[in-house]
Amino acid sequence: KIMTGAPLPPGADSVVAVEDTESRGDKVLIKERVSPGKNVGEVGEDIQKNELVLEKGEIINSSELGLLASLGYDQVKVNKKPKLGIIATGDEIVEPGRKLKPGQIRNSNGYSLYGLAVKAGADATYLGIARDKKSSLKKLLNKARGFDIIVLSGGVSVGDYDLVKEQLKSLRVKTVFWQAKIKPGKPIFFGVKGKQLVFGLPGNPVSAMVTFYLFVRPAIDKMLGKKQIGLKSGKAILMEDISFKPGRRQFLRATVDQSGMVIQVVPFPNQKSGVLKSMVKSNVLIVVPPEIEMMEKGEEVEILYLD
Description:
This protein is of the alpha/beta class. 21% of the residues lie in helices and 27% in strands. The strands form five sheets. Strands 6-3-7-11-10-8 form a six-stranded mixed β-sheet, sandwiched between helices. Helix 3 (134-143) packs across helix 4. The two termini are 47 Å apart.
């Protein structure tokens, strides 16, 4: 008798499944014809000698864990998950579950960004809401001092930027850039403090999520040592005409259909930055170069997969 995966005993060259046998006292009746090599895995059938099992930058999931364990590895070197802190900003923001007063909006960004950060592989912490006071923002920024990445939501538009900029400057955060020629997501901030990365994302829900995908996600991927940095790109056939105001690179929420012979993509009908449902219904972004004014049905376009 032999267990699955065990080495064959000397002199044996095949294995019969127990359901194809019948015990008769101290004897076993084999109920089928057995040929040499039946139910036997050859040496090297799974992994060859000197074969590279996993490459640097690969993600270790359940299958990879099983493979490493089968080869006797109880420990392997991995990249540490970057510690990421999320701060929502604004006096008008209230947490879910509280009744809204006139002029208030619910804090969706803190939670959507947390979900995106965790999905990207970061050790994420939602730190709370910074009110429009110097002390409030400074208190939460101080909480995040030991983090690898800080993500602010809101407070980076033209009218709000001075407060955030002043607080970041007081904490010795060096501005790398403010604003990008993209849509959605023009009012984005990026700065550094030593090795710490600081991102200020727009307050509009869609803009916050899109800029997270475009700017924060690649930083997380890089820190994790992944082979694929940022969203995976591809090509698809556009299924309707769309027109644009040129000047900024645009990222349109859309749905891609890969069920047929040709990959097809359809833009979400409402591309406004506050339409959060568009992110739920979309699985790709269509990339529109800044000089383009029109894309026609049947045209091949670049897409970015939203995982």
